[in-house]
Methyltransferase domain-containing protein
Amino acid sequence: MSDPYERSAEYLDILIAESWEPLAPALADALSNVRARTGAVVDLGAGSGRGVRVICDALPQTPVLAVEPSAAMRAVLLARVHEADELRERVTVVPGDCAGVDWPDGVRAVVALNMIGHLPPGQRRALWGRAARQLAPGGALVFNLAPPFTPVEVERVRTARVVVGELEYEGWASARPTGADEITWRMDYGVLRQGRPLAGASVEYRWWVTTEGALAAEVAEAGLVLRRTGDSGLGLCVLERVSDPASQVG
Ligand SMILES: C[S@@+](CC[C@H](N)C(=O)[O-])C[C@H]1O[C@@H](n2cnc3c(N)ncnc32)[C@H](O)[C@@H]1O
C-alpha cells in the first residue's frame, strides 16, 4: 500500500507545529489525569514525534512505544528522539501500523492524535477492543476528533504557513466525499521564495469520518466510556474502561 506521507513528511512537522501549541498542554493535562501509574505509553501514528515529546515531559520515567508506519515520518521521529538524551533513553520507535504492532499488556495510556480517521471502521473497532483488553487498570486512550464528522465537501483552505530561512512553506487542505462514511483529503504543500513557487507536493488519502455520538456507542460496545477533555475546539477525547471503578466518578 502506498504511503501518502512519503512525499509530505518533508513538510508535516513544521506545518503541524502551530496546531500543537494548544494541543500539547491539553494532552499533558489529559495524561497527568490518567489514574494508572505504571506501564508504558503507546503513541499510535507518532508522526514526527511532537506527541512523544509531550508524553515524555508529562510522564517522566515512563517508557514510550512510538508506532509509525511511514519510513519518511520515522526519519523525522528518530532524529527528534535521538537528538535528546531524555527521549533516546526511553522512546522506542516501532516500524508498523496500528493493526500490526503488538503492545505489552498493562499500558498506562495509548495516544492516537490526528490519526483515527486513517482507520477504516473495522480497524477502529479492533483498536477499541484492544485498548479495553490491554490498558492497565485506570489506563486511558487519548485521541482527537476533528471535522468533518460526516462525508461532505471541504473547500480548499490554507491550514498553515511558516517561514524558515529565506523560504515560505504552506499547507492547503480540501476534501471530497468518497463513501458512506469516508472522505478523501487532498493536501497541497508549497515552498515559495518571495511568493514564487519553488517546490511542492500534493498527496491524497482516505479518511473515515464519524460523529461523537456514533463513536460513543461504538466504544461502549467494547466496554469503554468516552468523555471530552480540554478546550472543545481541540476535539480531545479520553476513553476509559467502564469497569474501572473510578471511571464512573466525575
Ligand atoms: C497527520 S499525521 C499525525 C502525526 C502525529 N500523531 C501528530 O499529531 O503530530 C498521521 C500519522 O498517522 C500515521 N498512520 C497512518 N495510518 C496509520 C495506521 N493504520 N496505524 C498507525 N499510524 C498510522 C501516518 O503515517 C502519520 O504519521
In short: The chain has a mean pLDDT of 96. The longest helix spans residues 5-32. The two ends are 43 Å apart (CA to CA).
